[in-house]
Design goal:
CATH superfamily of the largest domain: Reverse transcriptase/Diguanylate cyclase domain
Largest sheet: 6 strands, mixed
CATH architecture of the largest domain: 2-Layer Sandwich
Number of domains: 2
Shape: rod-shaped
Strand order of the largest sheet: 7-8-6-9-10-11
Order of helices and strands: EHEHEHEHEHHEHHEEHEHHEE
Oligomer: single chain
């Protein structure tokens, strides 16, 4: 440590003792301040500003009015003075109070009359301690900032890993994880889970006619609309792949799922996004709705997918509900259609 960089503050009620201590520190080559009042000492220690470059405080143990112990306790209450080394200056007959001083936060002591070599050695040691403690605190603060930065980056990476880059909604990976958790919750509690699989009708024609940039914009518009139609925090809107999306609705029965499906169809019909190569002239979707209450041994995902298949083949621009294993392709279907199985179609206005 370079001696000229040391900053020593002397707090003593005796002008003579202040002069003697300053003289004793002469060979140290330090910057020494010896204020005449405690208010001046408080100013030098930054009690108002919260910062000081003082390395060592030489503090008289016994002073009239506010004594050294009281002043020491006052200093230690300030966070920026926690690392400041304090050397108590005491007379031999005051040794019995040193225990109190150390308990209050003193680091060392010297006795009067002060020997210059001892004072310089202990002051230098105290300054090194102050610098080391401050350096450690700075490293800890920097480490904390780096840790916070890394945590933020990891959160961003996690978010990116479960977010579709084009539409900003959940991706297939996030959907798979949420579906697994939802089905586990259903198995434990019986809570209804409804899944809606939906597909943009004639999307290949859309890309072929208007180009892929327009197709990307269309996907973004549809994703935003789906988010608007599923406002609950427990709902998940995900891009399943390509032009296919999935809506996962917790605590929702089949009727509730069909209500959401109708909402999507109505909203998209009202939006009327142009589609030059669609029979209706605007973008439409087909939806398949399935609920855990009715799927039986068939997986929820497969049931919703097959309902979507039937919606496509029933004319598109609507929703179809999967209600029975006979809904599987190739199975004989001798039952009359029920309202829950019918295509939910919103005619263009």
């Amino acid at each position: 440590m370079s001696a000229e960089l040391l900053h020593v503050l002397i707090v003593d009620d005796s002008a003579l003792m202040r002069a003697m201590l300053r003289q004793a520190l002469r060979d140290l080559g330090a910057r020494v301040e010896a204020p005449a009042t405690l208010d001046e000492a408080r100013e030098a220690l930054g009690l108002r500003g919260g910062h000081t470059d003082v390395d060592v405080l030489l503090l008289d143990l016994v002073m009239p009015g506010t004594d050294g112990l009281t002043f020491l306790r006052e200093l230690r209450a300030h966070a920026h003075l926690q690392d400041l080394s304090v050397v108590m200056v005491t007379a031999l007959q005051e040794d019995d109070r040193l225990d109190e001083a150390f308990a209050a936060g003193a680091n060392d002591y010297v006795t009067k009359p002060v020997r210059p070599t001892v004072l310089c050695a202990r002051t230098l040691h105290a300054a090194r301690l102050t610098r080391a403690l401050r350096a450690r605190r700075e490293r800890e603060a920097q480490l904390e900032l780096m840790t916070a930065s890394l945590r933020s980056l990891n959160e961003q990476l996690t978010e990116l890993s479960v977010t579709d880059g084009l539409t900003g909604i959940a991706n297939r990976r996030a959907f798979d994880a949420h579906l697994d958790r939802a089905l586990s919750l259903h198995a434990r509690s019986g809570l209804s889970v409804t899944l809606i699989m939906l597909d943009i009708d004639h999307f290949k024609r859309y890309n072929d006619t208007l180009g892929h940039p327009a197709g990307d914009a269309c996907l973004q518009e549809v994703a935003a609309l789906l988010r608007e139609c599923t406002p609950r925090r427990t709902d998940l809107t995900a891009r399943y792949g390509g032009e296919e999306f999935a809506l996962l609705l917790l605590d929702t029965d089949l009727a509730g799922g069909l209500t959401v499906a109708r909402r999507v169809v109505s909203a998209l019909t009202a939006r009327r996004l142009p589609h030059p190569d669609s029979p209706l002239g605007f973008v439409t979707v087909s939806l398949g709705v399935a609920c855990t209450e009715l799927t039986g041994d068939v997986s929820l995902r497969e049931a919703a997918d097959q309902a979507l298949y039937r919606a496509k083949h029933a004319g598109r621009h609507g929703a179809f509900a999967w209600t029975h294993p006979l809904d599987m392709p190739g199975a004989p279907d001798r039952r009359p259609p029920t309202p829950a199985e019918s295509v939910v179609d919103e005619p263009p206005p």
